[in-house]
Amino acid sequence: MNTTREHALVRKAAGGDEEAMEALIRAHQDSLYAFVLRMSGRPETAEDIVQEAFVRVLKNLARFDNRFRFSTWLFTIAKRLYMNSIQKLGPSYDTQVVEVRSASDPGPGLNTARTEADRNVRALLDTVISGLGPQQREIILLFHQQNWPIAQIARHLQIPKGTVKSHLHRGRKRMRRLIQASCRMNRQAQEVFS
């Protein structure tokens, strides 16, 4: 969704237009859920945080600063809600249940080898992502999963662009070391990437 359309929907939603509210939710729900799920590692936590983030955003649309992207504001609120939840409950990460939402049902005819390879890649990524610190994890996910540009991540986190680049570089390097450090992960990587 481009910025102009997004801002028009925000204006309409702030005026009480329910269709505009639904359009904003539909446009950002899956990407926000995927981001929070990767951060938390728990589907139920991700669902709760996404729901609460949308409730807060929709109640406070009048506060939205249209100099920025709506998605940046939404992701910031979700991140703060997540950080508050881990302070209350402590962090947890369950790599067995992390799956990316898919709009299509794979159906019974899906190649089982491909399914197994996808599962191995997902498990491998979940494991190495969970080995990163919170800020590196967030930067890696925003850049690679959400396709946010470095400048947007820097604004979102209120850090210099060079710091974002450093975190990306060090995060990728750490992920590579984590993969190489584990024989099990090496077998999975060789199986998937060969």
Please tag this protein with its features.
194 residues; mainly alpha; Rna Polymerase Sigma Factor, Chain: A; Arc Repressor Mutant, subunit A; 2 domains; 0% strand
Write the layout of secondary structure elements.
Layout: H1 3-14, H2 18-40, H3 43-59, H4 70-89, H5 112-130, H6 134-145, H7 150-157, H8 161-181, H9 183-193
Helix pairs in contact: 1-2, 2-3, 2-4, 2-6, 3-4, 5-8, 5-9, 6-8, 7-8, 8-9
Description:
The protein is mostly helical and 194 residues long. The protein has two domains: 3-89, Orthogonal Bundle (Rna Polymerase Sigma Factor, Chain: A), CATH 1.10.1740.10; 112-193, Winged helix-like DNA-binding domain superfamily/Winged helix DNA-binding domain (Arc Repressor Mutant, subunit A). It is built from nine helices and no strands. Helix 6 (134-145) crosses helix 8 (161-181). The longest helix has 23 residues, at 18-40. The radius of gyration is 18 Å and the shape is globular. The relative contact order is 0.10. Mean pLDDT is 80; it is low at 90-110.
